Amino acid sequence: MAKRWKVRPDHANWGDFGEDDQVGRLNLITPERRRLAAQEVKEGIAFCLSLPLDLPGGNLLVPLRLPPTRHVAPRKCGHHFVNFPMRLENECWTDFSCDDAVTIYTQYSTQWDALSHVGQAFDADQDGEAELVYYNGYRGGVDILGPEQAGGPGAVHLGIEKMAETCVQGRGVMVDAFARYGAERKFIGYDDLMRIMDEDGVEVEEGDMFCLHTGWTHAVAARQGNPDVALLHHAYSVLDGSDEKLLQWIEDSGISVLIADNFAVEGFQQQGRGGEGSFPALPIHRRCLVELGIHLGELWHLTPLNDWLRAHKRSRFLLTAPPLRLPGSFGSPATPVATV
Ligand code: UVW
């Protein structure tokens, strides 16, 4: 089979984990690193890092993403499949049961972005024209299929199930931006991040699962399903993807995944560096998902864990956070568990 790419983007690690790799930096969570992560379990206290999946509520965050809807199976023997009397021919059992089906927009609430979530235009085959490429040179229209294509829509490669198969368990490290910036809409660059980490004595090592606590998700949850645009789009901190030093740190630090308790991890860019006409809206998405194979976790509920860690002068914990093993999906809800 012909190689998928001849040249890779400047910062890409394509091929470094194998020509056909589909999990990127998750390869850095080795058995030895997982063993070290388990040593962070000292009290045996566990935290659920997911919102209820019907939050934020409404669709003001991303109009196309809707809250979950529940359906029940068609009636059977005159009954809905809720409080359904289980029968054996004419004999009546004493059991009743309930089944349901749920339509979930995979990125509506606490979630992982799959490596198939974002691609970029790049001339990887050097034919003079940019094509749509994803991590490791996988292609839009070939590996990532649209609804009009046979077998689509879905990811033939880079689907979220590949992430699930790694189990997604390792050492989490918390950085608390909320303690510095509160509800201020702050674009956090490299210098800001390093200052927080220095002052709080946070160390990040290769393979660590990096978590940024901003307080946004906690504030959204407090609105009980009715958050407004001011909160959703104009409050609390986000990473600043226009800061090349921050992008370089993400690359050099060796973090395995990047997680935040906000929407999109980073703020949308309104203009290109140097005033270019076209530029990425979400440069961290590009560096992480496309170039380096770093999955992004978004809308996680980190505040209770963050507060516990801060009170106990700790920043590290065991994190277990598989997505659904849902073949071909571009993202997945998650119910991550942190154990301290
Ligand atoms: C977008 O798709 C804009 O970002 P996210 O990764 O938040 O889903």
CATH homologous superfamily label of the domain at 24-61 and 106-118 and 157-339: Putative cyclase
State the name of the first-level CATH class of the domain at 24-61 and 106-118 and 157-339: Alpha Beta
The number of helical elements comes to: 9
Care to count the β-strands? 19
CATH topology descriptor of the domain at 24-61 and 106-118 and 157-339: Glucose Oxidase, domain 1
Give me the strand/helix succession: HEEEEEEEEEEHEHEHEHHEHEHEHEEE
Structural class: alpha+beta
Protein name: Kynurenine formamidase
InterPro entries: KFase/CYL, KFase_sf
Task: Please provide a written account of the structure.
The protein has 340 residues and is α+β, with helices and mostly antiparallel strands. It has 9 helices and 19 strands. It has a 9-stranded mixed beta sheet with strand order 1-19-17-11-13-15-16-6-18, with helices on both faces. A two-stranded antiparallel ribbon has the order 2-5. The structure holds acetylphosphate. Acetylphosphate binds next to strand 16.
How would you briefly describe this protein structure?
The chain has nine helices and 19 strands.
Task: Describe the protein's topology.
Blueprint: H1 31-38, E1 46-48, E2 69-71, E3 84-88, E4 91-97, E5 101-103, E6 111-113, E7 120-122, E8 131-133, E9 144-145, E10 154-155, H2 160-165, E11 169-176, H3 178-181, E12 187-188, H4 190-200, E13 209-213, H5 216-222, H6 229-234, E14 238-239, H7 244-253, E15 257-260, H8 283-292, E16 295-298, H9 303-311, E17 316-320, E18 331-333, E19 337-339
Parallel strand pairs: 11-13, 12-14, 13-15, 15-16
Antiparallel strand pairs: 1-19, 2-5, 3-4, 6-16, 6-18, 7-8, 9-10, 11-17, 17-19
The protein binds acetylphosphate.
